[in-house]
Write a structure and sequence with these properties.
The chain has one helix at 3-15; strands spanning 18-21, 27-30, 42-44, 49-51, 55-58, 66-72, 82-87, 91-93, 102-111, 114-115, 122-126, 132-142, 145-166, 175-179, 187-192, 196-202, 210-219, 224-233, 242-243, 255-261, 265-272, 278-287, 290-296, 309-317, 320-328. It is mainly beta.
Length: 330
């Protein structure tokens, strides 16, 4: 390993504070020791609901390096339909499930400090005969609001949709945000066998608050069926544009690059080696005022794994250029 690297690493340890993971998406100054991740919150399928979609979703924790997912036919998980570890995404396709079976599922998160607590256990019934078959259901924050979107594969006698929200998923008090009766864009398509997309922008959700959304469909006979639940947080607009220290750092093989934008900006986020050569361009686009978290997998633009050493992460936003050091150790 080059001598310059040892020198740079000693300088790093003596002069740079490393952010310690609180496990809840926040950070404080401390040592390399961090806390295990927080308890995940399940989102889709909704608890005690029926679904024709085998995709399971939960909230993405900022400082989780991977997830463990368990699905069982028994509430005590004495056997498993799915028992997967090392999952890098907060979504998982459980594959071919058996119609009319009731499934129990839970998720926990893992990082360098250990394994966090399992989520609450939810259950759902897999039923391919439901009136609406969802392909996707998501809630994303965008410019001070939350955009809720869903896509159906098929619809059968569907009069329309009702969208509700709550702040507390453990003891929910669901309130109707919008319905097919007040907004024509939520009207169902009756009976169709082709995909359809629906979108609603919730501009009344307060910044800094996590909201859980529940989607239901109503048939022509008046029957109501819960399709799924998702969650999202309206981001507060940052006061300053900053490139925050990487987490973890030193790292292997991946780290999170976090930054804030106080105003809309043309953003270029890139990684350079110590010779000033750009090895990876992570972003080059216009972004709105918000907080961002980009994961770098220690590879260059060609997909090759980079060697151990010090790298520079450079953020260019409008007329600002901000830099953080990254130490890759293998």
């Amino acid at each position: 390993m080059p001598k310059w690297f040892y020198f740079a690493f000693l300088v790093f340890l003596s002069g740079i504070n490393v952010l310690a993971d609180t496990g809840y998406g926040n950070s404080g100054t401390g040592s390399l020791t961090s806390l295990p991740p927080a308890q995940p919150v399940l989102s889709t399928p909704a608890n005690h609901s029926g679904t024709a979609l085998s995709v399971l979703d939960w909230n993405d924790l900022d400082h989780a390096s991977s997830y463990i997912l368990q699905v069982s036919l028994a509430s005590n998980f004495d056997s498993y339909v799915v028992n997967e570890s090392g999952l890098n995404e907060s979504t998982y396709d459980a594959g071919e499930l058996v119609t009319s079976n009731n499934y129990y599922w839970r998720v926990c998160a893992v990082n360098v400090a250990g394994t966090g607590a399992y989520s609450d256990t939810w259950d759902f019934t897999f039923d391919t005969s439901l009136p609406v078959e969802l392909i996707s259901f998501s809630a994303t924050r965008e410019q001070g609001s939350i955009v809720v979107s869903w896509r159906t594969e098929t619809e059968s006698n569907n009069l329309g949709f009702i969208l509700e929200r709550t702040r507390n998923i453990t003891n929910p008090d669901w309130q109707v945000v919008v319905s097919y009766e007040t907004h024509s864009e939520l009207a169902g398509r009756g009976t169709i066998d082709s995909p359809k997309e629906y979108t609603f922008r919730d501009t009344s959700a307060q910044p800094g608050t996590t909201w859980f959304y529940r989607l239901s469909d109503v048939s022509y006979s008046g029957d109501l069926h819960v399709c799924g639940t998702v969650c999202s947080t309206v981001a507060e607009i940052p006061e300053t544009t900053e490139l925050l220290p990487l987490y973890p750092n030193p790292f292997n093989p991946q780290t999170h690059i976090r930054y804030t934008l106080a105003e809309q900006a043309q953003v270029e986020l890139s990684v350079y080696d110590i010779n000033g050569r750009k090895v990876r361009e992570l972003s080059n686009c216009t972004q709105s005022a918000s907080s961002y978290n980009v994961q770098w997998d220690s590879k260059d633009d060609a997909g090759n794994s980079l060697p151990s050493g010090m790298y520079l992460v450079i953020l260019k936003a409008n007329n600002q250029m901000l830099t953080q050091k990254a130490f890759l150790i293998k």
